[in-house]
Amino acid sequence: MTELTVPELSLVVLIGATGSGKSVFGRTHFAPTEVISSDFCRGLVADDENDQSVSAAAFDVLHYIAGKRLALGKLTVIDATNVQPDMRKQLVALAREHDVLPVAIVLDLPDRLSIDRNAARPDRDFGAHVVRHQRDLLRRGLRSLNKEGFRHVHVLRSEAEVDAVTITRTKLYNDLRTETGPFDVIGDIHGCRAELESLLTELGYRISHDPVGARHPEGRRAVFVGDLVDRGPDTPGVLRLVMGMVAAGTALCVSGNHEAKLLRALRGRDVRVTHGLAESLAQLGEESEEFRAEVERFIDGLISHYVLDGGRLVVCHAGLIEAYQGRASRRVRDFALYGQSTGETDEFGLPIRYPWANEYRGKAMVLYGHTPVPAPEWVNNTLCLDTGCVFGGRLTALRYPERALVSVPASAVHYQPTKPFPVNPTAEPGEASRRDPDVLDIGDVTGQRVVQTRNHGRLTIRADNAAAALEVMSRFAIDPRWLLYLPPTMSPVATNKKGDLLEHPEQAFEQYRSDGVGAVLCEEKHMGSRAVALVCKDEAAARARFGAPGEAIGAIWTRTGRPFFNPDLTGQLLDRLRAAIAKAGLFAELDADWLLFDAELLPWSVKAEDLLRGQYASVGAAARAALPAATDVLRQAAAAGLDVTDLLARTEARQANAEAFTAAYRRYCWPTDGLDGVRIAPFQLLAAGSATFETEQHDWHLAIADRLVEADPETFTPTRRCLVDTSDPESTGAGVRWWTELTEGGGEGMVVKPLANLTRGKRGLVQPGLKVRGREYLRIIYGPDYTEPANLDRLRERGLGLKRSLATREYALGLEAIDRAARGEPLWRVHECVFAVLALESEPVDPRL
Fold first, then answer.
1. Following DSSP, what letter does each residue of 732-758 receive, concatenated?
2. What pLDDT does residue 344 have?
3. Selection from 507, 440, 471 nearest residue 839 by Cα
4. Could you give the count of Cα atoms lying within 13 Å of 37 in the half-sphere of its Cβ?
5. What pLDDT does 145 receive?
6. Gyration radius of the chain over CA positions
7. List of E strands, 158-288
């Protein structure tokens, strides 16, 4: 077997004459979606894959599709002859544009093989001269493929070699997403060995001298942002310690610009001996030749950046924009080592750096150094850890994921900076400023935006939708420090096509069955108002985590982020919730000082009283006033011998429908006085402290709810449920009967959810829930006469595609928001997801769905 290595993120270019087997090779070793064929693109353009006259347009299409895939971080394979240098040049340029590695796989097979294969295909009557010309071009270009920019070149010269190939996809050196920490990320050291040892000791590491290194008893690892060398008093000592830790696996290290320059100097390159390089060369000159060679190998092996913890953390020397994270190219390395310069210099002759962090909106936390600052300052989820130790400042580390700063003061001013450095030697560790949690920048939410989610990729929020959400959020919403989550809309089940039921459970079971979901949980759908409740253990926890707006211990809000009650009533209800949570033992069991619930607040009339009075009650009252009188007149006319039979029947049916309509909405309303009569039906625990629970089964969540009901049955109401196996007709039949009993007994209906909670199917995220509403409840939604055959026929044409898309996107955004909140990310990061949910709500979707 012949193993060919291909980076996981790369542009693979197949090169070979027509008939050499490139398409078969592509189909054999890569997924169909990964291979883009020039023939296929000709077919797209001209309906004929062999129409050479449209090759220019076809390659435009090919490059466009490849560019879109590479932008999304997808491996892409180009299936074309690619024997012309100009064609390869365009593909190498495309790879560089997207900062991925170009790989060449060459099928340099004998002419006769390709000629015979083409002869066997009537659509490939190219003639032998075409193959020979292409092979001639290929051979002339083989030696120059590396010079053209291909980072890996694999050449196969026989059918046997082709048949023996296996493709191994290798991770990029910077891809350490499987490494989850915990980490201690340490800023620029610049030869300050004594301070480094002090900081490591403060962080809990145990330093050894034979062999030289340091190890943390709890398994933490240090990550160095580069610039270990130059300027300071002991560059060799710093290198020994860091090299020992890296070799032992107790540390990671990326390259800084000073390491890059030192490497060139050690190799005898012509470099300017400035900015502390002289000190490093002099100190290393006193070391053995063997040690200098070891240093050279170590620095040569340092890479530009690491992507860690599932993509949540990026460590580099000078910073890195999101588009470059996890990529590999010269410009990525240059940005990571040197940052982005404006091309200007300041009055001290130093380059003016472009403030990339001010515009950063990436999902990953970026920790870096390079430009010394008096104290670390959080800027859009980025943090510079270079606090100028060599200039008399401090040496600083950030504990990750705790986000705790630890620093030690410099023992002296070891090097006089070119530009005056404002030293604050008395600053306490963690005294860094960060973006005020009480302030949100309007620029975070205005205009068209793209929000990256873990579960559904990138989601676009249109500018007009954002403007609509801004109106609601700025005028009516609760304090944003509480607002960690907005619940998603929920799609109804597929429309039932028979009988007088518009929705039926069987469609829900069929939908999940087709998605590969075997077990579903049917939950009673309470006719109330969707409510989110955030409850803190005590006032101290509310202040420490949320700033305790209004001196409250939490908040309760609607689907659009508005409060249900005035502050006094909210406070009373929160006290009840907190007492029940404490009595149920949840604060202690979950080791959390705040909990976030998704729930229904009953009755419906608490929030919808104006809607009831202005719309439903008025419709019902008008119908009940007019229709009985009309019925009486028509009955009199019939008694007098007039033929009004059909009109009388229709009017009597409308009168019955009006009575049913009134009874339907009244069923969900009852009088309340303050909190008397108000009930809460929790159905999901979203988060608690630093944990989220989207992967816990729904019966686990309802068991939590049952404990709250038991703790305070006056405030909490239970949610009935029924477990169904979608592959078992007896089980689905039982589910249908359960729903029928609910709805015929006056219930709204049920929500069918995958028992496993967060679930992925063949097409991505499975719908988190499908609501199946009863016949009489839908009368409220669609009007008294919706059950008439003509109306039902019209309603059965309703489209659900946009509603389901909206439900999936809002669900992913909600999960992203609570994940960011649980991880302690800045408020703007949480709020951009919450705001996006509200923005999507202004999309033009039928509100009755």
1. HHHHHHHHHHHHHTT--EEEEEETTSS
2. 61
3. 471
4. 19
5. 92
6. 34
7. 165-170, 175-176, 183-186, 206-209, 212-215, 221-224, 251-253
Q: Which residues on neighbouring strands pair with residue 185, listed in sequence order? A: 223, 398
| Six-digit token string for 564 | 């249900």
Q: How far apart are CA 502 and CA 786, in angstroms?
A: 10
pTM score over 0.90: no
The angle that helices 801-822 and 827-840 make with each other, rounded to 10 degrees, is: 170
CA torsion 538→544→545→546, rounded to 10°?
Answer: 90
Q: Could you give the CA distance from residue 106 to residue 121 in angstroms, rounded to a whole number? A: 22
The answer to whether 724 touches 753, Cβ cutoff 8 Å, is: no
Sign of dihedral through CA atoms 639, 640, 644, 647? negative
Per the listing, tokens 């923005």 go with 839
Cα–Cα distance, 647 to 99 (Å, whole number): 74
From residue 464, alpha-carbon distances to 445, 467, 487, 805 in Å are: 11, 5, 21, 19
Place of tokens 């999309």: 843
Please give the single-letter amino acid code of residue 174: N
Question: Residue 373, SS3?
Answer: coil
Please tell me what DSSP assigns to residue 482: T
Contacts of 42 (CB under 8 A, 6+ apart): 48, 49, 50, 51, 52, 54, 55, 58
Record the tokens describing residue 645, joined without a space. Answer: 């039979």
Residues lower than pLDDT 50 in the chain: 425-435, 437, 612
Q: Nearest 5°: phi and psi at 47?
A: 65, 15
Condensed to tens digits (0 to 9), the pLDDT of residues 487-527 reads: 999 999 888 887 778 889 999 999 999 999 999 999 999 88
Name the E strands within 19-172: 35-37, 76-79, 101-107, 152-156, 165-170
Q: For residues 678 and 671, give the distance between their C-alpha atoms in angstroms, rounded to a whole number.
A: 9
The rounded distance, in Å, linking the Cα atoms of 518 and 349 is 68
Beta-strand ranges (E) seen in 100-205 are: 101-107, 152-156, 165-170, 175-176, 183-186
**Nearest residue to 128 (alpha-carbon basis) of 119, 139, 138:** 119
Is the peptide bond preceding residue 603 cis, with omega within 30 degrees of 0?
Answer: yes
| Residue 180 Cα distances to 461, 465, 550, angstroms | 31, 37, 37
Taking the C-alpha atoms of residue 366 and residue 449, their distance in angstroms, rounded to an integer, is 20
Q: How many CB atoms are located within 10 Å of the residue 547 CB?
A: 15
Q: Which helix (H) or strand (E) holds 624?
A: helix 617-639
Indicate the burial class of 489 (C-beta count within 10 angstroms; 0-12, 13-18, 19 or more). buried
